[in-house]
Amino acid sequence: MELTRRDAAAALAAIGATGGVALGVRRTADRRGGGPGGEQADPAWDGEGLPGDEAVRTAMTAVAEAVYPGAVSGVDAFVGAFLDGRLDGSPHCEGIRAAVAEVESAARSWYDAPVADLPPADRDELLRELGADTAEEDPDGTTAERVRYYVVNELLLALYSSPTGGELVGIENPQGHAGGAESYQRGPR
Amino acid sequence: MSGAESVDGERSAADVDAGGAVDRSPVPDADVCVVGAGPAGALVADRLASDRDVVVLDAGPRFDPNNRLARQERAIRPSYDRPDVWGVGGARDAHENAGDRSYPLNHARVKGVGGSTLHWQGMVMRLHEDDFDSASERGVGADWPVDYADLRPYYAEAERELGVAGASDNPYAPPREEPHPMPPFEPSYSDSLFAEACESLGIDMHSVPNARNSEPYEGRSPCVGYGTCQPVCPSGAKYDATVHVERAEEKGATVIDRAPVERLEHDGDDRMTAAVYATPDGERHRQEAEAFVVAAGGVETPRLLLLSASDRYPDGLANGSGHVGEFFMDHLFAGAGGTLDEETRQNHVGFYTSACDQFYDEADEEQAPFKLEFFNYAGPSPVEMALAGDDWGDALVDRLRDGYGNHVAMGGLVEQLPDADSRVTLADDRTDDRGNPVPRIEWSVDDRALDTIERANEIQVAILEELGADVEWIAGPDATGPAYHHMGTTRMSDDPGAGVVDADCRTHDLTNCWIASSSVFPTSGAMNPTLTIAALALRVGDDVADWLGDDS
């Protein structure tokens, strides 16, 4: 099942980012060098300090490929478009950035490679070793709880509040998606 | 601003922008001071603001509408509890429970401009005619000093003000003179499943009135199906009292947020003279006015009167009757649910579209009035399930498919009788963030209500079994809880010894003080209270206007 930019815009509309109107705009700015605190955004980030937006996108897409079901495609574009809205300089954005740094730090320490270079089974294992599978999300909690909040649940929230993510489980207008006031009237297809 | 945690600092944010320049000083020469910017206070203020200088004081903040999506994220994410969505809790909202049953007060209210309509479900039924004459017609409870006929035109006006989508297909509803302002929401797919079962059992289903736009209404969006009505509607399709706060401000009213009123003062002629309120900078101010309307809900209203005790009113202001705080009531929830072996299409929207009032007016001395609801949000929401497991990938999808799709459920509300021992008082030794005694709630429920919950459960289970459902849960007398409708604590009566306010909702003891709130309900009926709150508020507005006209 193909995830689309509409899904990304829907997910953003569900969870409080600027949404579709801003898609694409901010990324252009970032590519000119708009990382945190004016740092240069660097997709070839070396794991030191905080990652720039492109490095966050790369890592989050790699994690998404582990936590999303095999039945979805278009993950790269979906996550990228979603993060275009979420990487907005807010405290939440910086929380994502810090949690991604911790995931990357673990990947490089334990697997000697950034998360995007790990095979899918190792990405899954990395997240479990971090404790993100059993942790309850908490933006102010332990590393496991913050990775669960800002990385794993961030991605799951994006997917399952989008129309395509909802359809995976039988609801084309999932909670959080402004899918209109008609679908509740329709019977099963 | 994005992310659920990004709204954390809202209580102070309003003062940070504009360099702390928010003006919270009293309004000179005010005609009317309204305490509370929920639906009652907002409607009164809007009613009066064209012709009078009105100031509204609210204990909570003015919420930024741009944060509603972040609040929705809070509603979905497991990290946040319900009070977190609108920043309820902490020392400001501390309270005590001392009754038979614990009352989850901070789940049941929002403090701030818009009040609890910010998180309400948005169901707006009229009370039935016998609800106003419970003692006479049912042999229990109390008669109101007003009848349905007195409120009928105000009900119609309240429906227009709030914007109500509804139909006239309910044969059990009280008489109405005109259609609802908007067409009803169509029945859900699961309603059609229930309809077959109900028909077999001779049980009638009908539409329900929603304070939620089924089409564009007065500049507000129609429902777009976010599915999180309770606790937050990001689209504004669900009515909330910010609508009337903004209208009142456009007419010239002054609304001061984060200004908790701590005390009401009076003179030697039984006229209220000032509301003393605190501001975030730690200062105290006195808002003087010709007339005062207390509209702070069923818990904070009696608390404020009790906090305002004086030499003349040693048991609390306007408490010559001794009844301030007594007769605290809520509606009791009765429910049942289970699963079918077919898809039921739940959780697309957060409101229900069909109900059954058939058994309501069977009420008598032994059986309370009750209504039944057919849910469109039975069972889990997949996105919420996804965030709370220890799985992901294909295993998560399998769990979601297994857990979502075939749930059905019914709810219902049951009246509880007024009882003086069910009450709100002041805590002896616990204070809030400003050193004032917190409310102490002693909530108890009568046997008639508990028996009626069982009766509602019997009907709900019969319907579910006729539907072919595997009944998996029943919320009966032992598992019931409140519907978050605080009522009864400044009851209305013609007799100054039996009630706090008269039939016009003016206090018996003070000539220039009205109470606009469900706190004036002598009995609760079993219908959601907000339409009646709104109707009474509009009526209070008229009475205050008349009084000010006469007084001047």
The name of the CATH topology of chain B is FAD/NAD(P)-binding domain
Q: Based on CA inertia axes, which overall geometry of chain B fits?
A: globular
CATH architecture of chain B: 3-Layer(bba) Sandwich
Question: For the terminal residues of chain B, how far apart are their CA atoms?
Answer: 49 Å
CATH superfamily of chain B: FAD/NAD(P)-binding domain
Summed over residues and divided by their number, the pLDDT of chain B gives a mean of: 96
- Structural class computed from helices and strand pairing of chain B: alpha/beta
Tally of helical segments of chain B: 13
Give the beta-strand count of chain B: 18
Largest interface: A-B, 59 and 59 residues
State Rg of chain A.
Answer: 16 Å
Domain unit count of chain A: 1
Total beta strands of chain A: 0
- Estimate the helix proportion of chain A, in percent: 40-55%
What attributes does this structure have?
heterodimer, A: 189 residues, mainly alpha, 8 helices, globular, B: 552 residues, alpha/beta, FAD/NAD(P)-binding domain, seven-stranded antiparallel sheet, 13 helices, flavoprotein (chain B), flavin adenine dinucleotide binding (chain B)
Task: Give the topology.
The complex is a heterodimer of chains A (189) and B (552).
Chain A: H1 5-14, H2 25-31, H3 53-67, H4 75-86, H5 91-111, H6 120-129, H7 143-160, H8 163-168
Helix pairs in contact in A: 1-4, 1-7, 3-4, 3-5, 3-6, 3-7, 5-6, 5-7
Chain B: H1 10-16, E1 32-35, H2 39-48, E2 54-57, H3 68-76, H4 82-85, E3 96-97, H5 134-138, H6 148-162, H7 189-201, E4 206-207, H8 242-250, E5 254-256, E6 261-266, E7 272-278, E8 284-288, E9 291-294, H9 297-307, E10 332-333, E11 335-339, E12 354-356, E13 370-374, H10 382-386, H11 393-403, E14 407-414, E15 423-431, E16 437-442, H12 447-466, E17 470-475, E18 513-515, H13 530-551
Parallel strand pairs in B: 1-2, 1-9, 2-5, 3-16, 9-18
Antiparallel strand pairs in B: 4-12, 6-7, 7-8, 10-14, 11-14, 11-17, 12-13, 13-14, 15-16
